[in-house]
């Protein structure tokens, strides 16, 4: 596909969503939502709000053409990489953990793999920006960020490559990470609802093929979002760390966070009654983690200096990874501090879109033994992820 065709497709997809939201929920609030496009060679998007929480929302989302172009090209290269893995090799055998070695859903052709991955990725990022706007994160960051004037007061919330950002540390980094994860949570909730809406449409897919297509779309969505996380991460290390620094969380931490939310949502009664799908919980877990693994395999072997896969890059599950548990200790504490205010300024959205942490997860982060002698130290890298979001 030529670049201009990528721009046109992205414009149609995101323009339609913007129109529906602006004429729907925003019109009811007396506000408006707009989308703008910019031509700088920047992989990113950002959300804009005047931050006037006592007035109807006047929200805007700006997307760079380079962002959608690169998402498409990454999806193309990713699919080509997976198809090129020789059968019976050590890399191919890594997929045995996920019950089969099928690396791309068979219900779509080659073009369908790329297109569906692309649409899923840019839609999820768009919903991520909506998450920032719904919760007025410009206001939240101003109110809960550093009070010494070091942090720039702004109505814009940027999502750009971490490697191009200034080095953010301390309270500013913490508040940024918390709001990014909160926007991830809103985005994932939004996306799952949108996905279900599409697959129950008889004009989109025949009822007999619904489960297979839903499974394929889930897989491609996780692949696409994973690639976006890695690309956003820029040149920063891929392996997670408990240290909170920079403007965005580590890509593997973000995946550890949203993957359970995806399979928990799709395993819930709402999703099952709406679609009548018969994908059991184990299959959902394997499907999502397999997709994240595929993206991590590609990125580590094709985009890192060593061009090697490290099993430390596999998702372990939030409750099984001591480094991630340590990382989330201040995250949960800060979110508990911020969430009452977020609920006050949140413009719209279902309660399930608000980031939450289960009692089990809270207990684990409180009990984690930082030197690795606790029960989490005995969990292998190939363990499936545990649920933490509710």
In short:
The chain has helices at 3-28, 65-83, 90-93, 110-134, 137-144, 170-199, 210-232, 251-267, 269-275, 281-302, 322-345, 359-367; strands at 32-38, 44-48, 58-64, 156-160. By secondary structure, the chain is α+β, with helices and mostly antiparallel strands.
- Order of adjacent strands in the largest pleated sheet: 1-3-2-4
Strand-residue proportion: 5-15%
Number of strands: 4
Pairing-aware structural class of the strands and helices? alpha+beta
Give a quick account of the main beta sheet: strands, pairing sense, barrel closure: 4 strands, mixed
Question: What is the terminal-to-terminal distance?
Answer: 40 Å
Helix and strand pattern:
HEEEHHHHEHHHHHHH
Radius of gyration, in angstroms, nearest whole number: 20 Å
Helix content: 40-55%
User: Counting H and I runs of at least 4 residues, what is the number of helices?
Assistant: 12
- How would the global form be characterised? globular
Spans where pLDDT lies below 50 across 5 or more residues: 372-390
Compute the average pLDDT: 88
Keywords: Plasmid
Organism: Paraburkholderia fungorum
Protein name: Peptidase U49
Provide structural commentary:
The chain is built from twelve helices and four strands, in the order H-E-E-E-H-H-H-H-E-H-H-H-H-H-H-H. The chain is an alpha+beta fold and 390 residues long. It has helices at residues 3-28, 65-83, 90-93, 110-134, 137-144, 170-199, 210-232, 251-267, 269-275, 281-302, 322-345, 359-367, and strands at residues 32-38, 44-48, 58-64, 156-160. A four-stranded mixed sheet has the order 1-3-2-4.
């Amino acid at each position: 596909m030529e670049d201009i065709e990528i721009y046109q497709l992205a414009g149609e997809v995101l323009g339609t969503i913007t129109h529906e939201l602006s004429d729907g929920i925003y019109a009811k609030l007396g506000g408006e939502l707009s989308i703008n496009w910019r031509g700088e060679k920047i992989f990113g998007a950002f959300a804009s709000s005047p931050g006037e929480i006592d007035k109807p929302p006047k929200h805007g989302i700006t997307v760079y053409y380079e962002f959608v172009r690169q998402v498409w090209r990454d999806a193309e290269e990713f699919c080509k990489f997976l198809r090129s893995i020789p059968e019976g090799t050590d890399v191919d055998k890594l997929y045995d953990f996920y019950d089969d070695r099928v690396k791309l859903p068979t219900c779509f052709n080659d073009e369908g793999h790329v297109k569906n991955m692309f649409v899923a990725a840019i839609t999820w990022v768009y919903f991520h920006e909506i998450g920032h706007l719904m919760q007025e994160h410009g206001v939240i960051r101003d109110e809960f960020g550093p009070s010494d004037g070091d942090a720039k007061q702004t109505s814009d919330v940027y999502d750009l490559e971490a490697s191009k950002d200034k080095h953010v540390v301390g309270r500013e980094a913490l508040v940024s990470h918390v709001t990014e994860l909160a926007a991830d949570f809103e985005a994932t909730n939004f996306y799952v609802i949108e996905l279900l809406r599409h697959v129950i449409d008889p004009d989109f897919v025949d009822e007999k093929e619904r489960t297979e297509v839903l499974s394929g779309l889930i897989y491609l969505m996780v692949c696409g979002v994973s690639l976006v996380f890695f690309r956003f991460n820029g040149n920063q290390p891929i392996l997670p760390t408990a240290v909170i620094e920079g403007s965005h969380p580590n890509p593997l931490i973000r995946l550890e966070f949203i993957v359970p939310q995806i399979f928990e949502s799709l395993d819930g009664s709402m999703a099952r009654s709406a679609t009548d799908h018969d994908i059991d919980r184990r299959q959902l877990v394997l499907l999502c983690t397999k997709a994240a693994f595929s993206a991590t395999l590609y990125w580590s072997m094709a985009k890192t200096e060593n061009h090697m896969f490290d099993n430390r890059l596999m998702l372990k599950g939030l409750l099984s990874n001591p480094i991630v548990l340590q990382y989330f200790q201040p995250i949960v504490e800060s979110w508990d501090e911020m969430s009452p205010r977020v609920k006050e300024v949140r413009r719209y959205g279902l309660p399930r879109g608000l980031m939450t942490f289960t009692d089990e997860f809270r207990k684990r982060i409180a009990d984690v033994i930082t030197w690795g002698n606790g029960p989490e130290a005995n969990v292998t890298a190939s363990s499936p992820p545990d649920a933490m979001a509710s």
